[in-house]
Design a protein that fits this description.
four-stranded antiparallel sheet; alpha+beta; 14 strands; flat; binds zinc ion; 5 helices
Length: about 250
C-alpha cells in the first residue's frame, strides 16, 4: 500500500473582495452549503486576486482563509501533465478589478471526493449550533460575529489536527486518482474546507523538482474493520475474564 499526504501551501494575500468575506458570494455557488459554518460550499467562479502573487520562488501558493485550494506555477502544471498525474484540472484565477486572467499562476482543481473514511476520534469537532459556551457567546457578540445569528445546520466539522496525524480507513485508498479530497469538512467557525490528499507519486515529483511552497503531512491509514472486530473481541474477553475471575 502506498503512502498518502495532506498537502497545504503557504498563504499569500487574501481572496478578493476581502471586506466582510465578500469573496464568498463572488466565488461560490449561491444557496449551496451553510451560510454560517460554510460546510457544503461549492466554488463556481474563479478566485479573484488583487495582484499577481509575488513569491517568485514558490511553485505552490495559497490564499489566506482558503485552506483547501492550491495555486501553482507553470512548471508544476507542465510536469504533472507530462507525468500523467490524475484527478486534476487547471484554470486561471482573475484580477478582482479588471476581471482579466492572471498570467503567472493556475488554480489546481481537485474534484474527486473520497467516500466517508476519516477515523476522527483523536480530533476535536465543532457543531454548527447556537454557541452554548457563555464566554464564547460574549466574545462572538462583542465582535459582531455571524456565528451568533445562524441559521445553524447542525453539521459537524473537524478542527485541523495540531501535531497529530489525520487517520483514514485504508480500504478506500484503492484505485484512486493522484489527487483527492476528503469527504469530511475541516476548519473552525466560519471556515470550512475539504483537505486535499496526494499520492506518493505526486510527492516524489514535487521532491525531484525541489519545488517550494507545498507542505506535506503523511496521513495514517488504518484498517477500520479489523479494529472494530478487535474491540469487539477485547470487550468479550474482558467480560469473560470478570465472569471467570481470571
Ligand atoms: Zn452550518
Amino acid at each position: 500500500m502506498n503512502n498518502w499526504y495532506h498537502i497545504t501551501t503557504g498563504q499569500f494575500g487574501y481572496p478578493q473582495p476581502e471586506d466582510d468575506f465578500e469573496y464568498l458570494e463572488l466565488t461560490y455557488e449561491p444557496n449551496i452549503g451553510c451560510p454560517t459554518c460554510h460546510v457544503g460550499i461549492r466554488q463556481n467562479n474563479p478566485f479573484r486576486f488583487r495582484t499577481e502573487p509575488k513569491a517568485k520562488n514558490s511553485q505552490f501558493l495559497g490564499l489566506n482563509w482558503v485552506f483547501d485550494q492550491i495555486f501553482v506555477r507553470e512548471p508544476v502544471k507542465t510536469e504533472f501533465e507530462k507525468n500523467g498525474i490524475t484527478g486534476i484540472s487547471f484554470s486561471r484565477p482573475i484580477f478582482h478589478k479588471s476581471e482579466k486572467e492572471l498570467k503567472t499562476i493556475y488554480q489546481l482543481h481537485v474534484d474527486t471526493i473520497l467516500p466517508k473514511a476519516l477515523i476522527g476520534e483523536n480530533l476535536n469537532t465543532e457543531k454548527c449550533e447556537y454557541p452554548t459556551d457563555k464566554k464564547m457567546l460574549k466574545f462572538l457578540k462583542a465582535n459582531g460575529s455571524g456565528l451568533v445569528d445562524g441559521p445553524f445546520c447542525g453539521d459537524l466539522k473537524f478542527n485541523f489536527p495540531q501535531g497529530q496525524k489525520m487517520t483514514f480507513d485504508f480500504e478506500v485508498f484503492e484505485n484512486l486518482p493522484d489527487f483527492v479530497r476528503t469527504y469530511e469538512w475541516f476548519g473552525s467557525g466560519g471556515s470550512a474546507n475539504q483537505p486535499i490528499l496526494i499520492s506518493e507519486k505526486v510527492k516524489s515529483i514535487i521532491e525531484l523538482n525541489n519545488w517550494r511552497g507545498a507542505f506535506l503531512d503523511q496521513i495514517e491509514l488504518k484498517n477500520k474493520k479489523a479494529r472494530i472486530a478487535n474491540n469487539g473481541y477485547n470487550s468479550l474477553w474482558q467480560r469473560a475474564k470478570s465472569k471467570l475471575n481470571l
